TrEMBL record, chain A:
It comes from the Bacteria. Signal peptide: none annotated. This is Phenylacetate-CoA oxygenase subunit PaaA. GO terms for biological process: phenylacetate catabolic process. Pfam families: PaaA_PaaC. GO terms for molecular function: phenylacetyl-CoA 1,2-epoxidase activity. It comes from Brevibacillus parabrevis. InterPro entries: Aromatic_CoA_ox/epox, Ferritin-like, Ferritin-like_SF, PaaA, PaaA_PaaC. One of its GO terms (cellular component) is cytosol.
From TrEMBL, chain B:
One of its GO terms (cellular component) is cytosol. InterPro entries: Aromatic_CoA_ox/epox (IPR052703), Ferritin-like (IPR012347), Ferritin-like_SF (IPR009078), PaaA_PaaC (IPR007814), PaaC (IPR011882). It comes from Brevibacillus parabrevis. This is Phenylacetate-CoA oxygenase subunit PaaI. SUPFAM superfamilies: Ferritin-like (SSF47240). GO terms for biological process: phenylacetate catabolic process.
Length: 322, 277
């Protein structure tokens, strides 16, 4: 049975109206359904950034995988980072389907990444100089990611929703993995506690930035368009408040601090009042000018170039036997 | 194998000093081989030729690390030391892995400017994997029951690893000229070290006499027959008798590459081995 949206005799305006009516009813869009170009572009931007962030996000933790302190931790962090790569793979496949009508492939995404046209999350541009950073990434960065991703579980684009359901389930294990590392350090020696405090301090501005600038911020954002398209349901600031409400009490409870002396909870407004991070710096970081941006991009680009012969060989073998 | 009667438990193994020593010596070889190669695998993270392979390779390295943990825990149960200490606090000359597994993945550090060799990764993983298969099959008959049981468990996972590497070997051997050349160069490099894998070290006689595993000759023959069949099926020229490296890894002689690997993998633990991590 053809739905109204799929009929070819409709004008673009009528298709658009039908599309918006469908998502307003809570309907879901599949990869082969008609969709406005703008919707497709928003999705490509969001999902390819999410996918590539998972992949680039493996790199700061990669630094600690071979060094994880016990056999159990070695196994756990290997599994965790493998999951992140798997998420990247899952998301890139969703993005690939969206890109296909535009004649673009995964290779284009990789090249966009190397040319800094495709951005990845600010947090993965930052340094992770100690084992405690690996813990904080698992606990707070993954914790923040769960909050933003959970918001999109009911996204209007069905393939993304399906990927997110699986990802969120795994991310909860990651946050537990991170929390376990953090608790061990928090209950440990003075040196371990200090290592953890330094990591929390170091990651604080990045964690605030993770949710993106507030509506009245200085950077234009696609929040409104994405909300209209039911790709997302909450604003950056709403998500940031969820994060602060969940994690600040835990950080304080463990006896640690954040580098913000004026931070406090406003009971009346029911929100945390905090010092804004440097949004100008944020802009620079996501442009690919963060402390570890060049290093990590170089790592990925070098390995991608140096294994081109392998991908060529697979293609060639496919032609021989296929 | 010797005609040693079955030793069912750790406690029973500890009753006989000669048996306990032979078992300990063998377990270190098993544990260290898997531990060091899993470490090398973990250095590849994020650098594999494509994302799907990154996930698969990482999964296999985890399995292998898991196997190493099982062997170290068996040593711990024998009273040799805490598993984490055995893995991370011994000096290089106490390690009993073959030299093949400790070789670097390529030039550069895993985190700074790595120039890794995927052909070498495939051939090393596969050649070692085939030997591991023969070794696990032999261990199924081991006089030490806990070792036989654990080997059965490992074989179910290991089977998938071998299938994976076989696909890679076949594809690269039958694709582009460049891939073929790189593959052949990797085989030559791996083959120079491969003849050490089946060696059982200074205590080999006792290890075999105690019925822990088959003798070197039998292990070698089975492994070579298996490997030759696979290489020829993939259309590769059989390299013949494998070489042995200059250092004797099973006797505790190693390259500086092992010392470097150990320094990296134990860096955090060594900050304070008495602390909880």
């Amino acid at each position: 049975m053809q739905t109204q949206m799929e009929r070819s005799d409709l004008t673009e305006n009528e298709k658009m109206e039908a599309f918006l009516a469908k998502i307003d009813r809570g309907g879901k869009i599949e990869a082969d359904d008609w969709m406005p170009d703008d919707y497709r572009n928003q999705l490509i931007k969001l999902i390819s950034m999410h996918g590539i962030s998972e992949i680039m996000g493996a790199l700061p933790e990669k630094e600690w995988v071979p060094k994880a302190p016990t056999l159990r931790r070695k196994l756990a962090i290997m599994a965790k980072v493998q999951d992140e790569m798997g998420h990247g793979q899952l998301l890139l496949r969703v993005a690939e389907d969206l890109l296909a009508p535009l004649g673009k492939t995964r290779e284009d995404l990789m090249n966009d990444l190397f040319a800094k046209r495709l951005k990845f999350h600010n947090v993965f541009h930052m340094e992770a100089p100690t084992w405690a950073d690996a813990g904080v990434i698992g606990w707070l960065v993954d914790g923040a990611a769960i909050i933003t991703q959970s918001m999109s579980l009911d996204t209007s684009y069905a393939p993304y929703a399906r990927a997110l359901h699986r990802i969120c389930a795994e991310e909860k294990f990651h946050a537990q993995h991170g929390e376990s590392i953090v608790l061990e350090l928090a209950e440990g020696t003075e040196e371990q506690r200090q290592m953890l405090q330094e990591a929390i301090t170091r990651w604080w501005p990045s964690l605030l930035m993770f949710f993106g600038p507030p509506e009245n911020g200085t950077i234009t954002s696609n929040q409104s368009a994405n909300m209209r398209y039911k790709i997302r349901t909450q604003t950056n600031e709403e998500l940031r408040q969820v994060f602060l409400k969940k994690y600040l009490p835990r950080i304080f409870h463990l006896g640690f601090t954040v580098p913000d002396e004026t931070i406090h909870f406003d009971e009346e407004k029911d929100q945390w009042v905090y010092q804004q991070p440097d949004w100008e710096q944020f802009k620079q970081i996501v442009k690919g000018n963060g402390p570890r941006s060049a290093h990590r991009l170089n790592l990925r680009e070098t390995s991608y170039e140096e294994t081109k012969w392998v991908r060529d060989a697979i293609m060639s073998y496919g032609r021989h036997v296929g | 194998m010797g005609d040693f009667s079955q030793v069912e438990t750790t406690e029973a193994a500890k009753q006989n000093p000669e048996y306990a020593q032979a078992l300990t010596d063998l377990l270190f070889q098993l544990a260290d081989d898997d531990f060091i190669l899993a470490y090398r695998g973990s250095e590849w993270l994020g650098l594999a030729p494509h994302i799907e392979e990154d996930v698969a390779f990482s999964s296999m390295s985890q399995d292998m690390m898991g196997h190493a943990v099982m062997f170290y825990e068996m040593l711990e149960q024998l009273g040799v030391g805490k598993a984490d200490d055995l893995a991370q606090l011994r000096e290089a000359d106490a390690f009993r892995n073959g030299i093949l597994v400790e070789r670097k993945n390529g030039e550069g550090d895993y985190n700074t400017d790595p120039h890794y060799d995927w052909a070498y990764a495939i051939v090393r993983s596969y050649v070692y994997g085939l030997y591991k298969q023969v070794r696990l099959e032999s261990l199924l008959q081991s006089s030490y029951t806990p070792l036989a049981l654990v080997s059965r468990k490992m074989m179910t996972e290991h089977r998938y690893h071998l299938m994976h590497w076989q696909v890679w070997l076949t594809q690269l051997a039958n694709s582009t000229d460049e891939a073929r050349k790189r593959l052949e160069a990797a085989i030559e490099k791996v083959w120079k070290d491969a003849g050490e894998l089946y060696q059982l070290g200074a205590n080999a006689d006792a290890i075999v006499r105690c019925g822990l595993i088959a003798g070197e000759g039998e292990l070698k023959q089975k492994w070579l027959t298996l490997t030759q069949g696979i290489f020829e099926k993939a259309g590769l020229v059989w390299a013949g008798e494998p070489g042995v490296p200059e250092q004797r890894g099973r006797h505790g002689q190693h390259t500086p590459e092992l010392a470097q690997a150990l320094a990296t993998l134990s860096e955090v633990y060594r900050i304070d081995p008495a602390a909880g991590w």
